[in-house]
Amino acid sequence: MPPPSPSDRTRVLAPVVTLSTIIIAIVVVARAGLQSRTTTEPAVLAIEHGSPLTLSMVAGSKARSMIVEFSHDGDASVALSLPTQWALREVRGAGLAAVPSDAPQFGFIRWHLPPRVVLGMQARSLPSPLTLHHPSATHMELKLRRINLDTGEVIDETFLIKEGPVRLW
């Protein structure tokens, strides 16, 4: 029996090489998608207000995603600048129109939060670190509750903030 000719080898190897290339491409794309969902990135928040207030922030995380709720006890609306990647989840205590937002700028959306209204946001990845900027001239108390729904761990912290950025976690 004569040895296979180069054209016979090409006919056999071409589908094998093509199939191998497709499998490698699928694995690379799937791995990149999984990695992008589980990678943590830093996030920055900012709050602006005219008089002393207490801001409540509840952050619940599960499987590396997070839901955050903000409310305050002040007498006037405050401005919260949040990452554009965070999606509005819900507003409680008022209609959606009561919590307007400005057009995105520099990677942030500025939300105007009235007193005694809860603003709920969803982040697809758990930010780390999370930093709060406080450019206002007056002080603020931040009551932070972090809930890890994977482990059941609850951490309550209180920050008294006068100036400068504060690393929340």
* Anisotropy-based shape: elongated
What's the structural domain tally?
A: 2
- CATH architecture level-2 label of the largest domain: Sandwich
**Largest β sheet strand count, sense and barrel closure:** 6 strands, mixed
Total strands: the figure is: 11
Order of helices and strands: HEEEEEEEEEEE
First and last CA, distance: 73 Å
* Model regions low in confidence, pLDDT < 50 over at least 5 residues: 32-39
Count, helices: 1
- Radius of gyration equals 25 Å
Largest beta sheet: strand ordering: 5-7-3-2-9-10
What's the level 1 CATH class of the largest domain? Mainly Beta
Helix content: 10-25%
CATH topology grouping of the largest domain:
Immunoglobulin-like
Proportion of beta-strand residues: 35-45%
Overall SS class: alpha+beta
Mean pLDDT: 85
Q: Describe it for me?
A:
The protein is α+β, with helices and mostly antiparallel strands and 169 residues long. The chain has one helix at residues 6-38, and strands at 43-48, 53-62, 65-72, 78-83, 87-92, 108-113, 118-123, 130-133, 140-148, 153-161, 166-167. The strands form two sheets. A six-stranded mixed β-sheet has the order 5-7-3-2-9-10, with no helix packed on it. The longest helix has 33 residues, at 6-38. The radius of gyration is 25 Å and the shape is elongated. Residues 32-39 have low confidence and may be disordered.
List the helices and strands and how they pair.
Blueprint: H1 6-38, E1 43-48, E2 53-62, E3 65-72, E4 78-83, E5 87-92, E6 108-113, E7 118-123, E8 130-133, E9 140-148, E10 153-161, E11 166-167
Parallel strand pairs: 1-8, 2-9
Antiparallel strand pairs: 1-4, 2-3, 3-7, 4-6, 5-7, 8-11, 9-10
